[in-house]
Amino acid sequence: xxxxxxxxxxxxxxxxxxxxxxxxxxxxxxxxxxxxxxxxxxxxxxxxxxxxxxxxxxxxxxxxxxxxxxxxxxxxxxxxxxxxxxxxxxxxxxxxxxxxxxxxxxxxxxxxxxxxxxxxxxxxxxxxxxxxxxxxxxxxxxxxxxxxxxxxxxxxxxxxxxxxxxxxxxxxxxxxxxxxxxxxxxxxxxxxxxxxxxxxxxxxxxxxxxxxxxxxxxxxxxxxxxxxxxxxxxxxxxxxxxxxxxxxxxxxxxxxxxxxxxxxxxxxxxxxxxxxxxxxxxxxxxxxxxxxxxxxxxxxxxxxxxxxxxxxxxxxxxxxxxxxxxxxxxxxxxxxxxx
Length: 339
Known about the structure:
By secondary structure, this protein is α/β, with parallel strands linked by helices. It has a single domain (83-338), classed as NAD(P)-binding Rossmann-like Domain (Rossmann fold). The chain has helices at residues 13-24, 40-51, 65-72, 87-92, 94-115, 165-184, 209-219, 238-250, 252-255, 272-283, 307-313, 321-334; strands at 4-8, 29-33, 55-59, 75-80, 120-126, 138-140, 145-147, 188-193, 195-197, 224-226, 232-237, 258-262, 269-271, 290-292, 301-302. It has a seven-stranded parallel beta sheet, with helices on both faces. Strands 9, 11, 13 and 15 form a four-stranded mixed beta sheet that branches. A two-stranded antiparallel ribbon has the order 6-7. The longest helix has 22 residues, at 94-115. The protein is globular. It starts with a strand and ends in a 5-residue tail after the last helix.
């Protein structure tokens, strides 16, 4: 079996941060990406400058099984990050969403199974597999929604309820990854992630809302808030996610086949309105957003219960939301010409 690490979607926001960290640790990394997302070409250029010959780039799609199988055959560890990432895009084009998210993940699993070497596989799923959670009581105050009596947030015991084509495609992949550990003995781990933010994120209206708000504020661009802006998410700095990846791989013999909710947890929650106020008070961005109807599949509130990850992975966030947002803001200001 090869000793390289394969990162699908390796030129994306999360992927580029992970690849850089792996290369810094002395790993040989295969960056597999079709460069379809805005910013990936710039991230790849940065990786080449930063990592040199510790990385190898393959421009290909996860739907190209032949190319994917060749790359998988060389890897001892696979991080499958490549995905269609927006609910709105999945609603507009559910077939493409299915092909990238469900079939793409299946292709990675089959390549790993057929290779016979059982590489470690970490898959990035989403909190959207839990649906809108209409049964949970929610309270509303001036700036945010809150769970009523939900304790630390949503745990992995929450029943699955795929809502939106994106939820269905990622949820199907989530369950395939889990089942390939049970049926075929592949050492897999699923991360059901909340909102990740940080440097090298080219956020837009459909995905990466923290970066999108900061970029819009810096550029003085119009901003639309869908719903009333009181939607709450727990947010996690990308560096802490990278630490969680390493924790899972390092403990793979005991955590194989497991699913973890990975996010900032109850200590790192933020609403859209609260981020706008932070941007006004801290950076002087006086954004007056327009408001539009709620979008399908949007959860009024989602907060990850990360207690299982704390207990089994020995992991918890180390970067608070205030510190992390400042870090992202500095990166955006430093790279203003990219936006």
